[in-house]
Each structure stands twice: as C-alpha cells, then as structure tokens.
Amino acid sequence: MQLADLHGRRVAVWGTGREGVAAIDAIAPVGPAELVAVMDRETYAAKPWTGRLAELAPLHTGPAALDVLLRSDVVVRSPVIGETHPWVVRLRERGVPITSGTALWMAEHAASTIGVTGSKGKSTTTNLISHLLTAVDHPNVMGGNIGVPVLDLPPAQRYVLELSMYQCADLTDSPDVAVLTSLAPEHLDWAGGEPEYYRHKLNLVEHGPRWVAYNAQDDRLSAELAARPGLPLLPANTASVPGAEPAFQVTADPDGTRQVRLGDQPLFSRTALPLLGRHNEGNLCVALTALRAVGVDCFAERDRLAAALATLPALEHRLTPIEDPSGITFVDDSLSTIPQSAIHAIEAYAGRPLTVIVGGEDRGVDYAPLRNFLAEQEVVATLIGIPDSGPRILDVVKDLHTITTLTADDLHEAVRLGRERTPAGGVVLLSPAAPSYGRFDNYAHRSRVFRQAIQDTAE
C-alpha cells in the first residue's frame, strides 16, 4: 500500500507523536475521503493538537475513539501501538487494514533504501553505513528510528534507515539491502512473545530484499535466518567459506595487532575505528558488508574508509564518556535497553574500577545472560539498581562474589552512590539494560537527568 492508495478512503492516524504528525502531513495532500487522528491515552510524546493539525485531522480521544478506528478503511499506527493492544486485536478481528508511516514510505522507496535493524547495534551500524558511504562518494540521507521520521525525509539518491521492530512489523516491502546486527528478546509486551518478536523483527527480510547483510557471529540470528531458506545472505564476522564471497572480519596478527580483513586481505588496522568494544568491530564488519552490497569496492577504497572512521560522528547516549574533575569517567549509555547491550558496555570498561547503574521499565526480560557474562568473565564491579527493574537485576547477580549490589530510589541517588563508591580513574557507567519509559519520557530524557545528576553531585 502506497500513500496514493489512500485517496478517497477513510483514514485514521493512531498516535499523535512525531510519527503521527508526519503521517498526517504526508496523507492529507493525497486526498483521503476522511482523515482523523486518534489517541487512546495520554503519552509523553503527544503533540498539542491545535491549529493546522486539528484542521487537517480532527482528534478523537479516549474509549470512544475505538469506534472511529473500527469504521475506518485504513488505520496508520504509530510505533508504540503494539500487537497486544486490545484495540489492535479488535481491528484484526474486524479485518481493518493496519499499516504504518514507515510501510507507506517503504512501498515507494524500497529500491533506494538500506534498512538496518537488530536488538542491539542498529544505531551504530546505521551511522557507520551512512558516514562511510558519504566518504566514498555515495551520497545518502540517514533517518528513521535514529532521527527524522521517514515520511519527513527529503528526496535522495539513497536512504540509510535505522528501523525498530515496531517499524519493521507492518512492512510489505523489504529494502534493497536489509541489514541485521543481532537478535535477542526485547519488546515482548508489544509483540506478544519471543517468537512473535523475532517474526516482526525479521519481517524486514520477508518481501524480496536484493541482499541481506547480517552478523554471522550472532547464533540466534543465524538460526532464524537458516529457517528462512532462499534469502540472499551476505554474512559478516565469519571466516570465509571456500567457493563463497569472502567475508569481513576482525582478526589478530601473530603480534596481537587486530586488523580489519576482507577474507585473508587486510584492509586497515582496528585502531582506525574509534569506538570501544569487540561488538563495535562486528558492527563495522556488518556496515562494510552493506557497502559492498551496493557496489562499493571496499578493498580499493580501504584508505578512504579508514580515514573516514576518524571523523565518525559520535552517537549521543551510546557509550558517551563524560569526564569529571574528580577523575571519575561517567559514561552515558542510556540507549542500552537489553541485557546484551549492557554486557558490551561493561566489557568495554571492565579493565577499570567500575560502577554500573542498571534498571528501568520492567518488561520481564530474562537477565540470566547478564549474570552469566559477569560470572564467566569474573567481572569486578558494583551494580546500583534503580526502579523499576533494578532490584530484579540485582537479585539475579547477588550471589556473584565479584559483584557488589546497591539499590537507589532514583537516578540522582544512583549517581551520588556511584561517586562515593568509585575511585579516581574509575568509571560510573549508566547502561540500564532496560527501557526508559515510565520514569522518563525516553532515553534522551534519562540521559539529561543523568548529566544533571553528575553536575548536582559534583563537589
């Protein structure tokens, strides 16, 4: 379904955040018979629905808005509205088509799009792909979950999009190159369960992508893709298979120097990549695989690619160091919403005295992987748990002899405790392993509170 297909139809846009506003602005010009906005409950992201927006699409709120949805020909939902929402269940039973702004946009732009998703690593990989493409004279526009809603993107030769599971779920067209970084249980409340989450996430590859670039080191991802035979797969982070195209990977020379390689050909030193952690080596290899999929000769361009990494724009709220006069390094990893992302953050700083602030919205995620990592690596750290899931995380790791656990009533208190417990030269890492919603508007709001607490607790 394309935007033009909404001409003459009764269309309801469900959600009044930035995605909802973008949908209204895009749909109104195509001439729907009726265009309305629906908000079932107040949310932090809701925009004031007055003036031009109210004229384009009158707003219906509360329980009565369900009737508006049920009499619509098409419902365009915002990402936060999940499959388990009782109104979605009613709409499915009634046979009312549900789509999204991302799906409408992708139907017209799939052939010029690289779409990136994954339970972790998708923001970094999207950023890498866009930046490296620009460096080798492949202009592009980056957007989606990482910034500008797709319906607000300007015309471009190529698009590089970060796509959340929410945005993948309603797609009926795959991007030209689908990029998969990882797969781990997340957003189970939205999807309705772990298998459903994987199905919605991997809907990105179900509609004819030309290539699927993926991280072959992720066992769960590899298994899910193997269960979908016939996909045009391009693995990264794996040894090259005889007879197949060589893969990108990072391996060590005999002297211990790590090199980025294409098959057995060295491209450039790992030191060219300024991002910490082995996981970011993997993200780089997946990004290079995506470049190769759109025709970039990464071996011929290796010098320009290496030079471009030095100017890679930093992602806010992803392992962002904040130096402090006390000698403590505070690290903002507010984008961490699952145990696996916190594991990578801890791994990056485990060589220094370490305090980790964990906890956020409790979606029932299994924290055993975090415990197993801390136990196997014998990480020495203090974990400070904040509401709502913090106490549950601490309960999972409390028997580990290398881990000290503390609780805090809020993020401000956690930062204060972190200052008290962490010596100069150490790290206080905010890597919550949980979403921000409930206590904060979003991950950016959580980050602002963290930074303000650092200032407030400084001597």
UniProtKB/TrEMBL annotation:
Domain Mur ligase central: 116-290
Binding locations of ATP: G118, S119, K120, G121, K122, S123, T124
UniProt GO molecular function: ligase activity
EC number: 6.3.2.9
Keywords: ATP-binding, Cell cycle, Cell division, Cell shape, Cell wall biogenesis/degradation, Cytoplasm, Ligase, Nucleotide-binding, Peptidoglycan synthesis
UniProt-listed Pfam families: Mur_ligase_M
Entries under Gene3D superfamilies matching the protein: Mur ligase, C-terminal domain (3.90.190.20), Mur-like, catalytic domain (3.40.1190.10), NAD(P)-binding Rossmann-like Domain (3.40.50.720)
Subcellular localization: Cytoplasm
Pathway(s) annotated for this protein in UniProt: Cell wall biogenesis; peptidoglycan biosynthesis
Chemical reaction(s) catalysed: UDP-N-acetyl-alpha-D-muramoyl-L-alanine + D-glutamate + ATP = UDP-N-acetyl-alpha-D-muramoyl-L-alanyl-D-glutamate + ADP + phosphate + H(+)
Domain of life: Bacteria
Function text: Cell wall formation. Catalyzes the addition of glutamate to the nucleotide precursor UDP-N-acetylmuramoyl-L-alanine (UMA).
Family note: Belongs to the MurCDEF family.
Protein name, as recorded: UDP-N-acetylmuramoylalanine--D-glutamate ligase
Organism of this sequence: Plantactinospora endophytica
Gene this chain is encoded by: murD
